[in-house]
TrEMBL record:
It comes from the Bacteria. Keywords: Cell membrane, Membrane, Transmembrane, Transmembrane helix. It is found in: Cell membrane. The lineage of its organism: Bacteria, Bacillati, Actinomycetota, Actinomycetes, Streptosporangiales. It is a multi-pass membrane protein. It comes from Streptosporangium saharense. InterPro entries: ABC/ECF_trnsptr_transmembrane, ECF_CbiQ, ECF_transporter_component. One of its GO terms (biological process) is cobalt ion transport. One of its GO terms (cellular component) is ATP-binding cassette (ABC) transporter complex. It holds the Pfam family CbiQ. PANTHER family: SLL0384 PROTEIN. This is Cobalt/nickel transport system permease protein.
């Protein structure tokens, strides 16, 4: 079950990173995120090393920097919030270009930006090297409830169908001279949303009955072998392992300097 719009995140390839089983990559990214979150905000060198590790992964997966940066726009709300913290933060303040900024707000902004950026970049690399369906199957291998996995799979499969249905309804409205311009048109748009919901619900009923007639018993067959060898787990663990080594090394350096 694929979905065309998800190809905007997935970048086909045949690299070592692409070939790793999805469950290995999911665990690796989650462990890397835990190491990043556990890092004190004052340890600037550690964050630089984490970024370098992600750069190595992107190079190994042949994912261009521009591809990653364009898909990191999801981080913008965090950036806006972080930028506001130095202005609204309390405590000691320092002058900067004629204005005063909160020292605690500056550290908080850095903490959010650094950790959110690294987390989003790791997630983008995961999505760029793993097909959505395989990612969900990998989550199922990690004991995620099968029902949740199937719901997510159907969402991926039929998202394009629903979006296309919505587009056709919009074209039909505009072909009759209707263009939503202000709040007076909200009732008409709401009726369209209601009709879209009913159509989607009825489509789901038809698909479910069709699946039952073909022997569906509550689980989808998996025809692809997703088992992972010890070597593959070790390879995937190199990212969080190297990040953990960087964290421990920074801890020893800071402890020695202290």
């Amino acid at each position: 079950m694929g979905a065309g719009h998800h190809h905007q995140l997935y970048r086909p390839g045949d690299t070592l990173v692409h070939r790793l089983p999805p469950q290995c990559k999911l665990v690796a990214v989650a462990a890397f995120a835990l190491v990043v979150v556990a890092t004190p905000r004052e340890w600037l060198w550690a964050f630089g090393l984490y970024a370098l590790l992600l750069g190595v992964v992107a190079f190994a997966a042949r994912v261009p920097p521009g591809f990653v940066l364009r898909r990191m726009v999801v981080e913008l709300p965090f950036v806006v919030f972080a930028v506001a913290l130095p202005f609204i933060g309390l405590g000691e303040r320092v002058p900067f270009l004629g204005i005063t900024l909160s020292v605690e707000g500056l550290w908080a902004a850095w903490n959010i930006l650094a950790k959110a950026t690294l987390g989003v970049a790791a997630s983008v690399l995961l999505a760029a090297t793993t097909e959505p369906r395989l990612m969900l199957l990998g989550a199922q291998r990690l004991r995620l409830p099968p029902l949740l996995v199937q719901i997510a799979m159907f969402m991926l499969r039929y998202m394009d169908v629903i979006v296309d249905e919505m587009r056709r309804m919009r074209v039909a409205r505009e072909s009759r001279g209707f263009v939503a311009r202000d709040v007076r048109h909200i009732p008409a748009v709401a009726k369209s949303a209601g009709a879209l919901f009913i159509r989607s619900y009825e489509r789901g009923e038809r698909v479910h009955l069709a699946m039952l007639s073909r022997g569906y018993t509550g689980s989808m067959p998996v025809i692809q072998d997703l088992s992972a060898s010890s070597r593959q787990w070790l390879t995937a663990g190199m990212l969080p392992g190297a990040a953990l080594v960087a964290l421990l090394g920074t801890t020893l350096v800071n402890g020695g300097l202290g």
